[in-house]
Amino acid sequence: MFLKILEGNLEIRNKFLELCKDEKVFRNSIVYSEVVYVFLKLVTGKSSFELKKEPEVIKSKAQELEKVEALINIAENLPISNVIEEEARWIVQQYGLLPNDALIAATCKHYGIKKIATFDSDFKRVDFLEIIVPE
Question: What's this model's pTM, rounded to 2 decimal places?
């Protein structure tokens, strides 16, 4: 959801803000990492490998990153514990999710979150989550 907003999708942004009025919105540090990472690639036009070798380019985006963080921080950050990591391991095996997605799903399960706002179709395999996409 955050990535679509950062890509400039105003319709999704407005619908997300409406969703935030009706629902409490959560995230974990994996979501933060993924959003900031994709944002840096998007605004610099550089690959991960290039960014790793050019820390000055990353530093030059500090002001834009503050705006990204303000968007991300609309959602309350839920900590990832060892228990959640263990649950994620089971989710990888059970649903075939990659580790970051498994940590997101495990965080939802641990905190009793039943709905996830995402465009990532991999979460359709997770039977304890309902995917919601603002329409």
Answer: 0.90
The answer for residues whose C-beta is within 8 angstroms of residue 23's C-beta and 6 or more apart is 115
* Alpha-carbon dihedral angle through residues 18, 23, 27, 31, given to the nearest 10 degrees: -30
Domains of the chain: 2-132 (3.40.50.1010)
Task: Give the closest residue to 79 by CA, choosing from 51, 46, 56, 110.
Answer: 110
- 90, 119 contact by CB (below 8 A): no
Please count the other Cβ atoms lying within 10 Å of the Cβ belonging to residue 3: 17
The 10s digit of each residue's pLDDT in 88-130 is 999 999 999 999 999 999 999 999 999 999 999 999 999 999 9
